[in-house]
Amino acid sequence: MIKSVDNRAWFLVLPVFALVAFNAIVPLMTVVNYSFQDSFGNNQFFWNGLGWYQELLDPSSELGGRFFAALGRSAAFSLGILAIEVPLGILVALCMPRDGAQLAIGLVIMALPLLVPWNVVGTIWLLYTRPDIGLFGWLINAVGIDFNATKNAAQAWFVLIAMDVWHWTSLVALLCFAGLKSIPDAYYQAARIDGASRLAIFRYIELPKLGRVLMIGVLLRFMDSFMIYTEPFVVTGGGPGNSTTVLSIDLVKIALGQFDLGKAAAMSIVYTLIVLTVCWVFYTVLVTRDSQTVERPEVPS
Amino acid sequence: MSRRIIFYAYLVCLMLPLYWLINLSFKANVEISTTMTLWPAVPTLSNYAVIFTAPEWFDGFRFSLTYVALNTIISISVALPAAYAFSRYSFLGDKHLFFWLLTNRMAPAAVFALPYFNLYSSIGLFDTVWAVALAHCIFNVPLAVWILEGFMSGVPREIDETARIDGYSFPRFFIKIFIPLIASGIGVAAFFCFMFSWVELLLARTLTNSKAISSIMTRTVSASGIDWGLLAAAGVLTLIPGALVIWFVRNHIAKGFALGRV
């Protein structure tokens, strides 16, 4: 759509700008301010310059080592769930009925995990996987595998990833389903006339149409999984040991547990910058793709 | 046929943990900790009775639903004009502004927890529904703008121009003609705002003094251990608002995803 240039449009954006700026800029400045200072309690602050940042980015220091370990865990978690949720979401979307009562029931069930409060998601999986009272943990133990997510780090990771897959695959599947529905029947008819195989139909008709929704899905899932806090906090509390202490959990431990505001603030800034950089790349790709599509598809996208 | 099997297997996997939660909520703690049964051998409503007779549980639900509703109303009403501006005009700094808005959707809540506490304490809103409703705007407003902009771009510009020629003023055109045209988009945006505000815990807990339902749930943990049955019953009750919302929009879920910025 060709947009007309009119700077008065700023008046329409002003309420949003004011509201978000109030919520974003004041707290962000507080964090920046803390990150250059040290505190020994009693609300006394001392200038520390770039000290915290130097310590944070130096893997050999205590804080730096801790930060890079947590960063690694967060990155591993995000990559892990993306590697499962995206293919699984596409598969489920391809398997969904196109219409009818089955679809309606399926959609309601699929949307249900998305509306469960995050602490309750943690609670559900805690109750489900505990070896003593959980169906899943009990079953695994019953077949002879010793399963206890509070003791074994690998099993704790398994529970966290299974939980996230349970929680969010539906979002990817629903997005893909919407993308698939926007493909006109004529495309499939043409493919049938050409004698295209099922795989070829997926590769050359469905996948290109899914590109955009997948981009949105990956972007949303990356943002939310990289800053995940509540669910692992409820299920594993970052343990056993520190094995599932992802960035957010470590950050809250430092900020609210030890009240090391300077360290936590410097960590927050670096953390936010990482998220922003990755999202900026995604966003740029998304916008570039959009501007390359000359014609809008049938369904406004 | 194998497609249907995969689909139903997926649905079963989704339902199992939920079933287990519901199952535990109808069991007494003795049964939970001593036996493993696929359904309650002695079904009991005692866990629910505890919740319904204690006023703080009821207040927690009311408190949480109030800030969710307020947040949805605020988010949608400020996002509507902004989304219109982004979809119809190009103006100084529009692309940067749009990305800046989205960055707030990306900012980790853990980063903002402590500064939010300071900010909302200093303006005297700490421990009120307004604090949480306003704080949740940081991720819901950008999302609402993003979704609504997608829907608005699907409405042809000619409609705006025709209305102007017919003598409609901008506010009258916007309310009388434009909003009905994107009603489904508003529904989708409201659904997402409701969803993200309802499921968020960290900010809601930081900005209130144990009033939100999510913090009241931590009361099931006491010195004598965790009250599993009570925890499960509370979990089941928190599923209800979400399930109700899904039930109301069940015919629009697929359509909503398809018509939006998808």
TrEMBL record, chain A:
Gene3D superfamilies, per the entry:
MetI-like (1.10.3720.10)
Q: Which UniProt keywords apply?
A: Membrane, Transmembrane, Transmembrane helix, Transport
* Principal subcellular localization: membrane
The superkingdom of the source organism is Bacteria
Its membrane topology: Multi-pass membrane protein
Q: Is the keyword Plastid assigned to this protein?
A: no
Q: For this UniProt entry, which segments traverse the membrane?
A: 12-36, 75-96, 103-128, 156-180, 201-223, 265-286
Question: Which positions fall inside the ABC transmembrane type-1 domain?
Answer: 71-282
Q: Where does the UniProt annotation locate this protein? A: Cell membrane
| InterPro entries attached to this UniProt entry | MetI-like, MetI-like_sf, Sugar_ABC_transporter
Annotated CDD domains: TM_PBP2
Q: Please report which protein family the annotation says this sequence is part of.
A: Belongs to the binding-protein-dependent transport system permease family.
PANTHER family (alphabetical): GLUCOSE IMPORT SYSTEM PERMEASE PROTEIN GLCT, TREHALOSE TRANSPORT SYSTEM PERMEASE PROTEIN SUGA
Q: What is this protein called?
A: Glycerol transport system permease protein
Which species is the source of this protein?
A: Ancylobacter vacuolatus
Automatic annotation (TrEMBL), chain B:
Q: Would you identify the family this protein belongs to, as annotated?
A: Belongs to the binding-protein-dependent transport system permease family.
Q: Keyword set for this entry?
A: Cell membrane, Membrane, Transmembrane, Transmembrane helix, Transport
The record gives the membrane topology as:
Multi-pass membrane protein
Q: What is the lineage of its organism?
A: Bacteria, Pseudomonadati, Pseudomonadota, Alphaproteobacteria, Hyphomicrobiales
Where's the ABC transmembrane type-1 domain?
61-249
Q: What is its main location?
A: membrane
Pfam families cross-referenced by the UniProt entry: BPD_transp_1
* Xref: Gene3D superfamilies: MetI-like (1.10.3720.10)
Instruction: Give the protein's recorded name.
Output: Glycerol transport system permease protein
Q: Where are the transmembrane segments?
A: 6-26, 38-58, 64-86, 98-117, 129-152, 173-199, 228-249
The subcellular localization recorded is: Cell membrane
